[in-house]
């Protein structure tokens, strides 16, 4: 019998309620979530903060992904970051609590992806070329630019996370 895998998210059709121009952003976020979820039941907590060859840890990638989505979608709404968001940014490389597991961090990321998808559903496509500002320096971007960057940044870190996780798992098998 042939192993039939689900097609990638973007090949499964439009996501209900997401504006047509934002479908690629939603597909990208959901694809990253699916791929990262593959390790949820088998990644050992003791390796979460390991840095093989000095690369960023799996734990960092999970925390950073949640934080960067929160920040970029905040800027996309035309808002500034809160003190809580700025504090989170400073702690992304650190274990949030003793015994924190892959699943704990994945749940945090999943919640952030769900919030992002909800925001996409509420986005008026006519605002996508409007200027939005990033950071204290108020660097100009566009609404669409921020949403697209959130998607590609998520994919980049998801790839790094997956490679690091595979390397770490291969060392214990």
UniProtKB/TrEMBL annotation:
It comes from the Bacteria. Residues 44-161 form the DinB-like domain. InterPro entries: DinB-like, DinB/YfiT-like. This is Damage-inducible protein DinB. It comes from Dyadobacter arcticus.
């Amino acid at each position: 019998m042939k192993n039939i895998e689900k097609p990638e998210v973007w090949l499964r059709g439009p996501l209900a309620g997401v504006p047509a121009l934002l479908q690629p952003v939603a597909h990208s976020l959901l694809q990253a979530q699916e791929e990262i979820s593959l390790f949820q039941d088998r990644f050992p907590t003791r390796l979460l903060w390991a840095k093989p060859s000095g690369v960023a840890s799996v734990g960092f990638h999970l925390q950073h992904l949640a934080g960067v989505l929160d920040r970029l979608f905040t800027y996309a709404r035309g808002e500034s970051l809160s003190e809580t968001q700025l504090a989170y940014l400073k702690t992304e490389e650190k274990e949030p609590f003793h015994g924190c597991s892959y699943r704990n961090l994945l749940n945090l990321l999943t919640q952030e992806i769900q919030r992002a998808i909800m925001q996409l559903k509420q986005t008026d496509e006519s605002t996508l070329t409007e200027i939005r500002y990033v950071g204290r320096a108020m660097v100009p971007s566009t609404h669409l630019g921020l949403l697209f960057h959130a998607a590609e940044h998520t994919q980049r870190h998801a790839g790094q996370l997956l490679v690091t996780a595979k390397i770490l798992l291969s060392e214990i098998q």
